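Next comes this protein.

***
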Amino acid sequence: MPTSDIIIIGGGIAGISAASALSNAAKVVVLEAEKSIGYHATGRSAAIYIKNYGNATLRALNARSEAPLSVPALPVDAPILTPRGELLIAQPDELDVFEDYFQDSDGLERLSPRQAHDLVPILKTDMFCAAVYEPKAQDIDVDLLLAGYARHARSNGADIITNATVQQMRYDGCFWTIETTNGTYQAKIVINAAGAWGDHIAEIAGVTPLGLRPLRRSAVLMPLPNHLPCENWPLFGSITEQWYAKPMGGKLMISPADEDPVQAQDVFPDDMTLAEGLWRFEQATTAPIARPSHSWAGLRTFLPDRTPAVGFDANSDGFFWLVGQGGYGVQTSPAMSELAADIILGNQPAIDQSHIAALSPHRFSQ
C-alpha cells in the first residue's frame, strides 16, 4: 500500500496548489476522480485577478496572492497575469452597494458614465449613473498556473493520480487509509480539497459536513460586429452582479452571474437562465445579441458565510479542510495553499490571525 505524509483529495486549483506548496517538505499524493486535473470549476473559471473582490478576509488573500501571481516561483514559460481592468456600473437604486464596494479598497477609481463609455463604447450611458474602475485587474492564464503548480509538485516527488474516485476512508488513530477506483493509499494527514464534493468526502470519512453549497454559474461566448473590436476592453458588468462580460478571443464571454443551487455534478447551463442574463446585458448595452458560438457552466461552491475553510477539522484528527473557495479559488490559490502548508507544517502563517480565525473550519463547530 503506497504510504505518504499527506493525501490530497481533489485535483482542482486548490488541491494542486496545496500539493505544490507542501511538496517542498512532505511526500504528497493527490487523488483526482476525473481523468484530468482541473476538470470542473478550475477549468471553467472566468479567470481574472481582482484585488478588491470579496469580503475583508478574501481581499487579504487576494493581496497576498498578487506577488506570486505576478512573478511566479513556478516552472512556467509565460506570464500568468496580463492586463485587463474591471469596470462595474451602478444604477440609482444600486448606489448603496456601489459605495460599500469602496470600503477597505485599494486602487479603485470613480468614473462618470461618459468615462465608462470611453472604456466600453457599447454601454448605454443613460442606463447607469456611476461606475467604478479597477485598472490593475488582470486576466489569469489558469491552464498555465495549474500546469505550473503540477510541474513543481511532481518535480518534488509528488504523485498526482487520476481516475481515482474515493470509495472508502478509515482512520486507525495514526493513519488514514483511502480506497479508490485506482488503488488504496495511506497517509497521516488527508486534505479535503474536493470542491463541490467536499461534504460528500467528509461523509465517507465519517466527518461532520460543513454545509457546502454548489451553485451553477453559466456563460456564453458571443461574437460582435467587426466594427466593435473588444480585445482592449476591461471586464465589465453590474455592481450587483446581475450580469458581466469579458473579452475572450475577439468575442465577448457573457454571464448572467447566476447562482442556482445544484447537486455536485458535471453541470450544464440552463437555457432560460442564459436568456435572462443576455436580456439584462442587452438592456445595458447597444451590442446586438447574436447567436452564441457555445455555452458552458461551472460550479462555484460556497460555505454559509461565503468564506472558505482552511484548517484541521475540530473533531477528526488528521482531516484538513481546504474548501468553499466559491469564485475566488484561482486568484487566491497562492495565499490559501501557503496558509494550508504553514498550518500543516507548523509554520507561522504570514496573514493576520483574525483572517486565520475567519477561515478556520472550527467556526462551524462552535
In short: The first strand starts at residue 3 and ends at 9.
